[in-house]
Structures are given as C-alpha cells and as structure tokens.
Write a structure and sequence with these properties.
Blueprint (H helix, E strand, L loop, with lengths): L1 H12 L2 H4 L5 H29 L3 H18 L7 E2 L2 H11 L4 H20 L11 H18 L1 H5 L8 H11 L5 H20 L12 H16 L1 H16 L27 E3 L2 E3 L1 H8 L2 H19 L8 H15 L8 E2 L1 H9 L7 H15 L9 H12 L6 H9 L4 H14 L1 H21 L6 E3 L7 E4 L3 E3 L4 H13 L1 H7 L3 E2 L2 E2 L2 E2 L6 E5 L3 E4 L1 H14 L4 E5 L3 H10 L4 E3 L4 H15 L7
Helix pairs in contact: 3-4, 3-5, 3-12, 3-16, 3-17, 3-18, 4-15, 4-17, 5-6, 5-14, 6-14, 6-15, 7-18, 7-20, 7-21, 10-11, 10-12, 10-18, 14-15, 20-21, 22-24
C-alpha cells in the first residue's frame, strides 16, 4: 500500500510519467507542430517583454528557456507554455526599475519558492478569494498601462516614466521630439499585426468537392500566417532597419548590442553590487518588498485561470499547477530569468495548433536554445518601434469590456470592485491598485455579512397564536445583530396595522384574544443555519428584553452544533422540530391565557 501511494504521489508531481507511456509518433508530430508555432510567437514576444521589464533582449530569451522543459515534466495542461508575459514583465519593472538584473533573478527565485510552498500545502483555494471583477479590473488596467508605456517607443521618444500618469505626462511634455521614421514604422507594424491577426479567423468555402483539399491547405496557411505575425513583423522590420542603417545618422532607434550565446547556469544572486558598493540579500529583498507576494500571486491566478479555461470540463489539480509553475520559476532563476508564467495568447495558439501533451514545451524551448546560440548577433538591428508595436497589439485583448455588460445584467454591486481596482491601478500603480481591489472586495463581503438574507414575517393564523418568524441562511454574526434588531422592532411597531391589513381585528379583538395580550413569540428556523455568533446571541437577548418584558423564542430544527452553541450562552433555550411547532405554539398560548405571563427564555 505504501509503495502504491508513493507511486501515485510521484505520478502526481511528475505527470510525464503518466502521459509518456502512450506517447507515439502521431502525438509527437502534433506536439512538434504546436511547439514550433508557439516558438514563433514566443521569441519575438520575449524580446519585446524584456524591454518592457527594463532589460536587454537576451534576458527575455533566458526567461523562455527553462520553463518549457520544466513544465513539460511537471505540468498537466498541454496548452500552457511558460515564459515571459506582459503582466509579469510590467510587475518586474515596477519592483526592479533602477536596479540591475540580479534583483529580477532573485525575485524569480523567491517567486518559485513561494509558489512551491503554496502548492505543496494545498493553498490553491486562496486564489478563489480574489474575485473575478478584481482580476478583470487589474488586468485591464495593466493592459492599458503596458500599452501606454510603449507609446514612447512607437513615437521614438526617450524619457523615464514608471506609471500610467507619468508616462502620459512625459509624452505630452516631449511630443515635439517625436521621430517621424520610428512613428511611421511603429504604426505600420501595428496595422500589419492587426491585419494579420484577422487572417487566422478567415473561413474559406467552396462548392467544388475537388478543390476541398486546396481550400484546407489555404485555410491552414492563412491560420499559420496569422499566428506567426509577431515573428514576420519583427523579421521584416529588422531587414528594413538593416538596409537603411547608417553609422553616423541612424534613421531608426535600434535594440543595439546584446550579449550573445547561452546563459551560464549559476546560483541566484544573493548579493549584488551597485554604485554604493555591495548590496546584501536582505537589502535586495527589502527593495523588492511587496513584490515578493504580489508577483507570485498574480502568476498563480493567471496560470490557474488558463488551466481551468483549457481543462475542457476535466478535473484540474490547481495545487499541482501551482507547484509546476513554482518549479519553472525556481529552475529559471538559475538561468538568469525574470519571473515567468503561462500566457493565454500562447496557450490559445498551442491549442489551435493541435497540441497533444505538455511535451510540446520541449520543442519550443529547443528552438529558443538554438535562437540564443545562433541568432543573438542579429538582434542588434531590431527596431524598438517594432517591439513596441508587438507589445501593444499583444495586450489589447486583455482589456475586458464585455464584463461590464455582464455585471450590469447580473449584479451591479460587483461593478464597484471592478471600477475601483481599474481606477486605483491606473492612478496609484498596478500593485497598489490590486491591493485596493482586494480591500474593496473585503468591504463588500463585510457589507453582505452585515446584511444577511432574512425573511422576517409576522404570522397570524386563525388556529395559532400570532408570532414572528425568521428563516436565516448561513450564519448570524455580530455584524448583522443591529439589522435584525431594527427589523424586528419595526415589525413590532406595525403589529396592529399588519393585523388590520389581514382584516382579522374586530373591535380590538383578534380571534377572541386581546391584541395587547397576544404572546410575543419569535420563531427562528435553524435548518439552514450553520453558525451563530456569540455577540449576535447577546444582541438577540437584549432585543427580546427591549421588545417586551414578556417573550418566548423558539428554535426550530436546530442542528446539534447549533444547540450546543445556544446551550452555552442561554438559559434553557426552547427547541423543537418543525413537526412539533404547532403543538409548542398552542402550548405557549394556553400558558399565556391562563397565567397571563411568560418568562423570557433567553
């Protein structure tokens, strides 16, 4: 049994041991095609995202190297490709700008450590505490911030900016320095990228059966051109820059010299140097600050969301996905990588390419390795305007406008965390904005908790004494005590009018009983109640004492745990089942009419 459990655990941590048993030539061909196709998207994106993170282009390829290999061994979702993304690149820049790459590599290492710990102790459920409106507002604001940060690249401007507001302030201040050549190239690249994106969605048809094969081939070619648009645009722009290049008067801003070759595997830097001398690990971690939690959290949310989207109804192990992502970051840190995670765009490309297993990442990473070994000298001529266009067109789909209409139709209160997160991210910075969104979510939860759904009714039936009836759901806590108290007092004050509405009062008498002598009975149905708060119980006790010096509370269908809670704070609470309620009410009425008194049972 122990051996069997050990095998199951190893297979869970390393899914490759399961899917590799049935790996054949047909599966390998499917993964190869998907791997090459994803590489054509990944490589130009990696170069662009490195500049977004504030580093030289080769660091984007370093970040794309190990993830495919590691996730191929430990990942379970075939579509996911681990590498640099626009969102994590922006977050990396947020926490490491003004420093050297060692800070980003150390951030990548600790992201891996934190994610592995989170997955190992089954903390995947914590992702559910960040609501979809907050995630949507965060990603939409991040997309606009990312696109805005590339405006200076599209216009050929050169100034320092860190936030959305400072970027646009810099654009306005430096607009007179716009370079016409870079602007025209950048806009042309954007137009071509958007046009080529449409190619993959074109559907050809023919009534001639003989030309069906030709139609299929043309359809696949159009699709391939569409998904490889980033590579095509970067290559063409690089060729243009090469031919128009002049040593003294360069018409285009180029990427420039970069370090050629593969990264040397080394331990993550636990100390670094700066103009002020040696910086210790503690000082580096202090500089990274909240990024040590925000960056891994955002990576987890993104990866789990992608895995759920492509699980196609199958059961998904969120904790294992988190462990796999953590391992990718941990191993990537040994190859000078900044933080990485899955990309929805690349995952969609992989899915459309017919990917079969996570092994497709092996082929993608091999192509990245060959690129680093052979092509880095040619990156010198890549125009910055072309990279800026790639980033802008890649993040446009992250702006989720459709969710506004859905929330308006379903629950308009959810627009508060959406709009609040979006605005705070733009004005205060995306990391602070995310925190603000979570705080807004918590405040809404507290609001809902203090406004529990309570169906409080005044019941007056001919054969029973009049009573107040509550049917709470979930839990009653101290935050909701005041609302319940006010609602019951309001019902009490309108008791006579309610009886008149029911047309049962005749000359001050209801069913033969004086209205003012009707028992003050409160019936609480506990069948859907999971928890009672002590403070709430004390509030109920004071409520009944305020309500009238005479009153009875009946607890109906209370679970054993609820009974135990009530017995610890109340003196002989009155319990009964729903089937016994009528008998109990009649008994209370008889005692009241004969003794004209009723001891408060709280």
């Amino acid at each position: 049994m122990l051996k069997l459990n050990a095998q199951r655990m190893v297979s869970r941590v390393f899914p490759i041991l399961t899917w590799s048993r049935s790996y054949d030539v047909q599966t390998g061909v499917g993964d190869l095609i998907a791997g090459i196709t994803v590489a054509l998207t990944l490589i130009p994106q990696s170069i662009a995202y490195a500049s977004l993170a504030g580093f030289e282009p080769q660091y984007g390829l370093y970040a794309s190297l190990a993830g495919g290999f590691v996730y191929g061994i430990m990942g379970a979702c075939p579509q996911i490709n681990i590498g640099p993304t626009a969102l994590l690149s922006l977050l990396t820049f947020t926490y490491t700008h003004g420093t050297n790459p060692d800070y980003a590599v150390l951030l990548c290492f600790f992201c891996g450590v934190i994610q592995i710990i989170a997955g190992s102790v089954q903390l995947g459920f914590l992702v559910e505490f960040v609501s979809l409106p907050v995630v949507s507002g965060f990603t939409s604001a991040a997309a606009i911030t990312i696109a805005s940060s590339q405006i200076k690249g599209l216009l050929g401007l050169n100034f320092s900016a860190e936030t959305f507001t400072s970027t646009w302030a810099g654009v306005v201040h430096n607009i007179t320095s716009t370079r016409v050549q870079d602007t025209l190239l950048g806009l042309a690249c954007c137009i071509v990228l958007m046009g080529m994106k449409v190619l993959k969605d074109i559907r050809l048809s023919s009534s001639d059966k003989k030309s069906t094969n030709n139609i299929v081939i043309k359809q696949k070619l159009l699709w391939f051109c569409g998904v490889s648009r980033n590579a095509v645009v970067v290559v063409v722009a690089t060729m243009i820059a090469f031919f128009v290049h002049e040593d003294k008067n360069n018409p285009l801003i180029l990427t420039g010299d970069i370090t050629p070759g593969l990264p040397t595997p080394r331990l993550p830097p636990f100390e670094t140097t700066s103009v002020n001398g040696t910086v210790t690990a503690g000082e580096m971690l202090s500089h990274l600050g909240s990024g040590l939690l925000v960056v891994p959290l955002v990576g987890i949310i993104s990866n789990v969301a992608i895995a759920k989207a492509f699980s196609k109804g199958k059961k998904m192990d969120a904790s294992q996905e988190i462990v796999a992502l953590g391992a990718c970051n941990l191993i990537s840190a040994f190859f000078s990588s900044f933080p990485v995670n899955g990309s929805f765009t690349r995952s969609a490309v992989s899915d459309a390419s017919g990917v079969r297993t996570p092994g497709a990442g092996f082929y993608t990473s091999l192509i990245v390795l060959l690129t680093l070994a052979l092509l880095t000298p040619y990156f010198y001529f890549i125009p910055r305007a072309a990279l800026a266009a790639v980033i802008v067109c890649a993040v446009l789909h992250m702006v989720d406008l459709a969710i506004v209409r859905r929330l308006w139709a379903t629950n308009r209160l959810d627009l508060i965390p959406l709009v609040g997160t979006f605005v705070c991210c733009l004005l205060l910075g995306i990391e602070i904005g995310l925190g603000c969104g979570v705080v807004i979510d918590v405040l809404l939860l507290l609001y809902y908790q203090s406004r529990p759904p309570l169906d409080v009714r005044f019941v007056n039936e001919s054969h029973l004494p009049a009573y107040y009836d509550i049917h709470p759901v979930g839990g009653l806590h101290f935050t909701s005590a005041e609302k319940v108290r006010n609602k019951l007092l309001a019902l009490k004050s309108s008791k006579e009018s309610r009886l008149q509405d029911l047309t049962v009062i005749r000359d001050g008498v209801a069913n033969g009983v004086d209205v003012h002598k009707i028992p003050n009975i409160l019936v609480i149905h506990c069948d859907a109640l999971s928890r009672l708060d002590y403070t709430f119980l004390q509030g109920v006790k004071m409520l009944v004492q305020e309500w009238l010096s005479e009153g009875v509370v009946v607890w109906v269908d209370a679970r054993p745990t609820i009974r135990d809670q009530l017995n610890t704070v109340l003196h002989e609470p009155l319990f009964c089942d729903a089937a016994q309620l009528t008998i109990v009410l009649l008994g209370i009425s008889t005692i009241t009419q004969t003794a004209n008194a009723c001891d408060t049972r709280l």
